[in-house]
Amino acid sequence: TAFRPGTFLLVGIPGLEKFHLWISLPFFSMYIFALLGNLVLLFTIVREQSLHEPMYLFLSALTVADLLLSTTTVPRMLAIFWFRVGDISLGACIAQMFLFHFISNAESAILAAMAFDRYVAICNPLRYVTLLTHSVIWRLELAAVVRSLCLVLPCVFLLLRLSYCTNRVIPHSYCEHMGVARLACTSIKVNVVYGLTLALLSAGIDVVFIAVFYGLILRAVFQLPSAGARRKAMSTCGSHLCIIFLFYTPAFFSFFTHRFGGHSIPRHVHILLACLYVVVPPMLNPIIYGVNNKQIRETVM
């Protein structure tokens, strides 16, 4: 029977319900570290005038995205783990879905912009200040937000047009596009196609740009005359490469297993990794930059 449900039910991590309390402890700890670390990093960049450079302005945007991504999902996740409060209204579920995908796509664009920043700094250092002005940086960040909004907003209407079955249980810890769409009684072919298109137009294109920029960076680094200069050039990219790895590895793993590996990978493994995706990168990003970046480390201390 098709109808419009008033609420959905998020179950947390299916198959591991009896371990929810124990699972919540590391998630709560990581969330608190993510909040504190990103707030300290953001406050440091805003307060210290010497950090108002392109790399740190992009980093501040990444920090805001991390804060929003984890706060959009983790508090409700903890409510499920602690109090078994899994009920969520249709409107709240779609709002959470929109924010999750919107922030994730914007963060992907910010990472691509940071790769462009490193490319200019290493391959065209004499033009760095003139190319990456504050005006250009704000435009790039605004473009990331607008692109993400335009790509993700159709998902809302694609979900609202569906008629849902009596099954209102979402086997996940938070609402995401395909997890909600699979509860529909009507065809979701359009949702599947658009979900794949969304991934290709956002993260797919961003990864290609990042690969191109770092390919050019590596070529320029290997042409430097001294080993010391090569190490110094690569050290400026080390933190960014770590963050790229942390962001895209679980994102692509979750995306491909959700669509192509659903029968070979246990559902609780997939959902657990999807939950880690929204808390581990936000927790580690400020640590990676704080440890590897001497200027931030000295400012904080």
Question: Describe it for me?
Answer:
The chain is mainly alpha-helical and 301 residues long. Helix content is 75%, strand content 3%. It contains 11 helices and 3 strands; from the N terminus they run βααβαααβαααααα. A 3-stranded mixed β-sheet has the order 2-1-3. Helix 8 (227-260) packs antiparallel against helix 10 (280-292). The chain is globular, with a radius of gyration of 21 Å. 37% of the residues are buried. The mean pLDDT is 90.
Short description:
This protein has 301 residues and is an all-alpha fold.
Strand order of the largest sheet: 2-1-3
Which spans of ≥5 residues are poorly predicted at pLDDT below 50?
none
Largest sheet: 3 strands, mixed
Helix content: over 70%
Number of helices: 11
What gross morphology would you assign?
A: globular
Mean pLDDT across every amino acid position: 90
Order of helices and strands: EHHEHHHEHHHHHH
Transmembrane segments: 20-43, 55-82, 88-116, 136-160, 192-217, 238-257, 269-291
Family: Belongs to the G-protein coupled receptor 1 family.
Domain G-protein coupled receptors family 1 profile: 37-289
Keywords: Cell membrane, G-protein coupled receptor, Membrane, Olfaction, Receptor, Sensory transduction, Transducer, Transmembrane, Transmembrane helix
